[in-house]
Amino acid sequence: MLARIVGIILGLILTTSGYVVSGLGTLGSWALGWDLGPFEPHRTTAGWAAMTLGGILLVAALLPRKGTSRRGTRRRKGSARGGERSLTKPFDMDGPRMDGPKMDRPEPVAPVSAIAAPMTIVPAVQAAPAPTPVGATEFEALRAEMLALCGSEAWNPAARVLARLVRAAESDRERTIAYRDLGDFAAAQGRHDDAAEAYEEAVSYARMVRKAQPSDPSADELLAGALAGVGDTAEAEGRLNEALAAFEEALALRRSPGGREAADPGAQRALSVALERLADLREDRGHRMRALDLYRESYDVTARLAAADPARFGLDLVATRARLEEIEARVAG
After folding, report:
1. Domain presence at residue 148
2. 161 in a domain, yes or no?
3. DSSP assignment letter at 93
4. What angle is formed at CA 162 by the lines to CA 157 and CA 163, rounded to 5 degrees?
5. Same structural domain for residues 42 and 163?
6. Nearest CA-CA partner of 292 in 245, 247, 328
7. What is the pLDDT of residues 158-215, one digit of tens each?
8. Measured on CA atoms in the order 37, 40, 42, 48, is the torsion positive or negative?
9. pLDDT-derived band of residue 142, with 50, 70 and 90 as boundaries?
């Protein structure tokens, strides 16, 4: 964000300076009479050059950032939450989603905000309301409805229900889940700034849950999932140091009791994905041996999962083996 602000300021200064220096116009008495020294004979050219450079800086600062990672062509198992960041399929209340391959991104909808007024968008798709689970709380019912709408690709109605879900959250655990969903929804539309803000809120509430329940493995899982969202968004925006810190902390939580040693395959897969996200980021920073160690650990976890359930985790093992062999070849070469 700071880089964007600096780029905008420098761009404006260069553009306006070039405008005056080139003789195209004036801005009061500003920049009038500037002596360009040895470039004075080329005043017009210098002015146009300044305007061009200023315009480039402005465009670069205002365009959405895609990040600086080299992993665009890599086949990945998913996000560090355990699945790709798309709401086209339901995911667990507290744990990682098991979506599998990356789904199509939903069409853009109006931004969802916890304090926004009710939206008046006419839905493009009207899905049938999801049945309310017996004995479900208002929060659980709203979340089930939101996930069902996302599964039907009814994005505008899902956005409205998601706004209600955030307002309906009463406990710190529910607020963590609601803001994590809000971050997922924004990230799926490419609104990384909104997603980052929502994930930070989720992390703050998840830390309170863990502080109140330090021996509860689900509290570790909750915080790890929120941190993974922070890491995903920071990586997408090119804030690699922040992404690295978030992924490191999330991995430490997943390695704690209830993580790697757990019997839950979902927790095991989440650990494997967290290892690979951190490994990819480490490789991008030039830490290939560290990345290799992390991928070897992930391969051990994934191999056990695939041996127990080949239909569910076989493709994961193929992807992990391919990346492991790729890194081993680079280290050897």
Report:
1. yes
2. yes
3. S
4. 100
5. no
6. 328
7. 999 999 999 999 999 999 999 999 999 999 888 899 999 999 999 999 999 999 998 8
8. positive
9. very high
